[in-house]
């Protein structure tokens, strides 16, 4: 019987240049669900995705994907596991010397020896899914930010992955493309039965489509559960500040400094 | 004051050692990678990028350097009534030193910097990371074909540089200074040896090509992922590879042509 | 950054041109600049000669007969038995053989030019034999050393004065 948890992270610790980014974290990502990971900027959300993809090594703990321990895979196995994972990078990360069609075709060309007609069919299907069949001959620099992200999404699903990770997919998008992306994420999740992980700090948008939520702060998970559970945890001040975006609270408005009056007194000596 | 100076020197030395180690490890990883299935066509594209696009600067520079060399050489030699030896002087100084070194310096400026900027951009826009996430090794798909193409391209460019420079030298010597064309060629042929001079010229440029491409790939791969980082890496590539070329040239010359 | 799309065909064309022209460059360097000739070398035989002084003679220096190159210096070593430089010559077989009365001298081309060996063929009679592979030429004249000449010149001036 297959485990209901598609991806599981147990007691993972990760530190970079002496600074502990994640301290003994546990995550469970359920098969076919959208899980959101929220947290303020600079908390290492992208790093978390890279850990899942095996691009970085955790200091301790386990990362298990489809019963395969990612944390001690060799390079070859890792490359095989990654075919089952898609990742949408924050910048889109399209190859700028290839046009849209070739970008989406890239993973297929690299991994399989397909006939050109079959390849074209597959690529057009993926582009149709994101609604961008019409721009297949353009180069990435000729696309708007939202379009580039949709092309990147088409490329991420080119190998028909089981798991897809979104790194800040909604940052810097206008309302229309934001909604398009939201719809796409939801739709792909349903139609392809993908397990989705969204890392973001766009609280409202993400929570409108997520099934489960983790909220990170200061290297720890400060809240987890379904969307309602997280919203209802009113006793957690830090969480509420983050969700509602108050400018002062547990995360202070002022950076750490000596009292203003004291510093001014020194200046006016 | 002195202690801070000493510790700064120490830090620099440690940093250099660390960079060297990291560059060696990167090289090892590139060399250990299994060849990509489309290696040949990737390689051809890189020959175009690094070689064909560097041709204009290499050929123009070669032509002018040959002319200047011939002109200056003539004024020195004519003082000893030895201007008949101009052909030999031009050919030997080009084949032994100027050809490999100048074309390597130009290659570092033209192709090495472009290589660093390209890889650096791919790294900082997460293109390499996304390639890795698609299960494609960037070392195999991006770095290895470039290293190979770099090593093959520069010797080819150097050969063409030498030809154009000798041609430039011939034009100045024979048409301008009036040296007899026959003696220009025969003195040259009498003094140039295929293996000792042409062969060593090629060996030198293979070594330089390896250094430039390696430095360029390293600086691109380990770029600080922002615009400033890319520009700094590009500069570092040109500076470091130029210095290494000159140092290596001295070492190779000592080995090839004696102390 | 220019994103000019160069088609695959054109890339292949230019890379092909580049490769062919660099092969041509290599051939030109070897044949017209280094002066390698395909038939020239042919067969050769080795002769030895001991000089008292070889001056600035280098390996690969030509052996000339009346200005025609008939061989090359292959190796210069010191004969430890009698402390004399020993020169190994590679003589072109198609330029003929010489009798054992032939002599060698070291000359300089021009005032400051490269040094070369001149061979003066000896007479041929009943007593002389033709030199063959591995033989040694006995009759040699050393290189003229400019410093010695100047020294002798000054010495003779002083004697006159």
List strands and helices in order, with pairings:
The complex is a heterotrimer of chains A (269), B (259) and C (161).
Chain A: E1 5-16, E2 19-30, E3 34-38, H1 45-52, E4 60-65, E5 68-69, H2 75-82, E6 85-88, H3 100-111, H4 116-129, H5 145-156, E7 163-167, H6 175-192, E8 195-200, H7 203-209, E9 212-217, E10 220-226, H8 227-232, H9 237-244, H10 260-267
Parallel strand pairs in A: 3-8, 3-9, 6-7, 7-8
Antiparallel strand pairs in A: 1-2, 1-4, 4-5, 9-10
Helix pairs in contact in A: 3-4, 3-5
Chain B: H1 2-32, H2 39-51, H3 55-79, H4 86-124, H5 127-133, H6 138-176, H7 181-191, H8 194-221, H9 227-257
Helix pairs in contact in B: 2-6, 3-4, 3-6, 4-6, 4-7, 4-8, 4-9, 6-8, 8-9
Chain C: H1 8-33, E1 44-50, E2 62-65, E3 68-79, E4 84-92, E5 103-108, E6 115-120, E7 136-137, E8 139-141, H2 146-160
Low-pLDDT parts of chain B are none
Question: How many runs of DSSP E, i.e. beta strands of chain B?
Answer: 0
Strand residues, percent of chain A:
15-25%
Nearest-angstrom radius of gyration of chain A?
21 Å
Class derived from helix and strand content of chain B: mainly alpha
Descriptive account of the structure:
- The complex is a heterotrimer of chains A (269), B (259) and C (161).
- With 269 residues, chain A is an alpha/beta fold.
- Chain A contains 10 helices and 10 strands.
- Chain A has helices at 45-52, 75-82, 100-111, 116-129, 145-156, 175-192, 203-209, 227-232, 237-244, 260-267; strands at residues 5-16, 19-30, 34-38, 60-65, 68-69, 85-88, 163-167, 195-200, 212-217, 220-226.
- In chain A, the strands form 2 sheets. Chain A has a 6-stranded mixed β-sheet, sandwiched between helices. Chain A has a 4-stranded antiparallel β-sheet with strand order 2-1-4-5, with no helix packed on it.
- The longest helix of chain A has 18 residues, at 175-192.
- With 259 residues, chain B is mainly α.
- Helices cover 86% and strands 0% of the residues of chain B.
- Chain B has 9 helices and no strands.
- Chain B has helices spanning 2-32, 39-51, 55-79, 86-124, 127-133, 138-176, 181-191, 194-221, 227-257.
- Chain B is globular and about 65 Å long.
- Helix content of chain C is 25%, strand content 30%.
- Chain C has 2 helices and 8 strands; from the N terminus they run αββββββββα.
- In chain C, a hairpin with a 4-residue loop joins strand 3 (68-79) and strand 4.
- Classes of the chains: A alpha/beta (269), B mainly alpha (259), C alpha/beta (161).
- The B-C interface holds B 41, 44-45, 47-48, 51-52, 55, 80-82, 84-85, 91, 95, 155-157, 159-160, 162-163, 166, 185-186, 188-194, 197-198 and C 6, 8, 11-12, 14-15, 17-19, 21-22, 25-26, 28-30, 32-36, 60, 62, 110-114.
């Amino acid at each position: 019987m297959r485990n209901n948890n598609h991806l599981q992270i147990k007691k993972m610790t990760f530190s970079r240049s002496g600074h502990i980014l994640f301290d003994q974290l546990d995550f469970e990502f359920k098969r076919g669900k959208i899980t959101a990971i929220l947290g303020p900027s600079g908390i290492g959300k992208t790093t978390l995705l890279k850990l899942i993809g095996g691009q970085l090594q955790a200091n301790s703990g386990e990362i298990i994907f489809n019963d395969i321990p990612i944390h001690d895979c060799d390079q070859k196995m890792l490359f095989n596991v990654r075919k089952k994972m898609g990742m949408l990078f924050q910048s889109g990360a399209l190859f700028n010397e290839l046009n849209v069609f070739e970008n989406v075709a890239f993973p297929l060309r690299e991994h399989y020896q397909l006939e050109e007609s079959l390849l074209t069919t597959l690529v057009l299907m993926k582009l149709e899914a994101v609604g961008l069949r019409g721009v297949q001959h353009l180069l990435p620099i000729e696309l708007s930010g939202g379009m580039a992200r949709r092309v990147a999404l088409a490329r991420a699903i080119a190998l028909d992955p089981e798991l897809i990770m979104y790194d800040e997919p909604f940052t810097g998008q206008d309302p229309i493309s934001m909604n398009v992306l939201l719809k796409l994420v939801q739709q792909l999740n349903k139609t392809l039965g993908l397990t989705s992980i969204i890392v973001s700090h766009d609280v409202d948008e993400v929570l409108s489509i997520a099934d489960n939520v983790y909220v990170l702060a200061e290297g720890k998970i400060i809240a987890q559960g379904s969307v309602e559970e997280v919203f209802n945890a009113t006793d957690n001040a830090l969480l509420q500040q983050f969700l509602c975006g108050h400018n002062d609270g547990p995360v202070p408005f002022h950076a750490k400094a000596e009292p203003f009056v004291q510093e001014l007194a020194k200046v006016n000596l | 004051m002195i202690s801070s100076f000493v510790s700064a020197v120490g830090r620099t030395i440690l940093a250099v050692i660390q960079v060297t180690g990291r560059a060696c490890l990167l090289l090892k990883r590139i060399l250990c990678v299994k060849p990509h299935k489309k290696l040949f066509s990737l390689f051809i594209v890189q020959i175009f990028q690094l070689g064909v696009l560097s041709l204009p600067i290499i050929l123009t520079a070669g032509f002018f350097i040959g002319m200047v060399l011939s002109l200056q050489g003539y004024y020195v030699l004519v003082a000893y009534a030895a201007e008949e030896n101009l052909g030999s002087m031009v050919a030997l100084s080009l084949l032994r030193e100027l050809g490999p070194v100048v074309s390597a310096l130009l290659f570092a400026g033209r192709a090495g910097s472009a290589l660093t900027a390209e890889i650096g951009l791919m790294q900082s826009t997460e293109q390499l990371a996304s390639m890795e996430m698609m299960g494609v090794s960037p070392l195999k798909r991006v770095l290895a074909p470039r290293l190979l193409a770099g090593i093959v391209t520069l010797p080819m460019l150097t050969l063409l540089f030498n030809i154009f420079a000798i041609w430039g030298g011939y034009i100045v010597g024979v048409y301008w200074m009036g040296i007899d064309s026959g003696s220009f060629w025969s003195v040259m042929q009498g003094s140039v040896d295929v293996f000792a001079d042409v062969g060593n010229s090629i060996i030198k440029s293979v070594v330089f090509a390896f250094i430039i491409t390696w430095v360029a790939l390293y600086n691109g791969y380990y770029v600080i992922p922002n615009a400033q980082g890319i520009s700094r890496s590009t500069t570092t590539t040109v500076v470091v590879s130029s210095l290494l070329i000159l140092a290596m040239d001295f070492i190779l010359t000592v080995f090839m042509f004696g102390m | 950054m220019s994103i000019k799309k160069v088609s695959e065909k054109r890339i292949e064309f230019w890379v092909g041109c580049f490769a062919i022209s660099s092969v041509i460059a290599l051939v030109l360097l070897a044949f017209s600049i280094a002066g390698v000739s395909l038939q020239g070398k042919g067969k050769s035989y080795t002769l030895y000669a001991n000089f008292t002084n070889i001056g600035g003679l280098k390996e690969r220096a030509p052996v000339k007969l009346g200005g025609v190159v008939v061989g090359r210096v292959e190796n210069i070593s010191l004969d430890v038995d009698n402390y004399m430089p020993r020169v190994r010559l590679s003589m072109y077989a198609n330029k003929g053989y010489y009798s054992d009365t032939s002599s060698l001298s070291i000359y300089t081309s021009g005032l400051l030019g490269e040094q070369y060996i001149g061979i003066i063929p000896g007479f041929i009679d009943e007593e002389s034999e033709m030199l063959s592979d591995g033989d040694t030429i006995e009759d040699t004249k050393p290189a003229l050393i400019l410093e010695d000449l100047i020294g002798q010149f000054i010495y003779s001036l002083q004697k006159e004065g």
